Amino acid sequence: MSDPYSALGVAKGASEKEIKTAYRKLAKELHPDKNKDNPKATERFSNVTMAYDLLMDKDKRAQFDRGEIDGEGNPTSPFGAGFGGGGFGGQRNQQSDFGTDGLDLGDIFDGIFGGGGGNRGGGFGGQTRSAPPPKGANTPYNLNVEFVPAATLEAQRITLSDGKTISLKLPKGVETGTQMKLKGKGQVGPGGAGDAIITITVRPHPFYTRSGNNVELDLPISLPEAVKGAKVKVPTVDGPVMANIPKGANSGQVLRLKGKGFHMKNGKRGDQLVRLLIDLPKDDEALRDFADNWDSSYNPRAALGV
Questions:
Q1: Overall average pLDDT of the 8-21 stretch
Q2: What pTM does this model have?
Q3: What CATH number should be reported for the domain holding residue 218?
């Protein structure tokens, strides 16, 4: 994805509200669950989610607008001025050239001031030692993880700059901004390879939201289910489960499903909080007849003094 604005179909100066509206519309239309036989829709869903993540991050959005990062959040020149190449005009810095070529600063000073070999003394003190050769630079990576795999700690595949693809085990407590270090997977330098630094972004979900380590879900229920109670299927990050709707349930009432949230660093898991929403059908004649014949003095606004 080269341009997150184009991916979402918004102007460069779009507000956060416009970006959210555009993303929600596209996410519902392109979600993989609705397009199982359409790989192009799945790819677009991935792109619009990546675009939303970048544009909702003020710092990353500013960096993209300045041309410092690309549409996937990677630096436009990720390797900077690291090591590699030869001579003084390549990508090696001055310190690495002295260390690699075996040049001793003491030899230079001896030549200028007439010093001899062996143990050097005089104005510059004892023997001069060259600095240890530096390691190569660290290599940054951005890894976008879908909401459900992040909650369940599903291993992720990532391809490194050397072309190798590895399976990455997500850490407990993972969230947007979590960084992982892979030792020796950075750029090669005179003193050894640097590290790979992986920054994780957890993508938003069409109907789950995260609150700390808990997962929240709005669950529509019918009027009969609310009045009489029922057993209904509820989606969770671990797969659907059956839950009991109590008799006389109201919109806004919350059910708690233990251990269906995100993994914590201490090994425990958060919960899933299910908020019930009574969903009435439109233009339902039987429901109108019921309301016409319902004789009750119940006032749902009595607690408000009206």
A1: 91
A2: 0.57
A3: 2.60.260.20
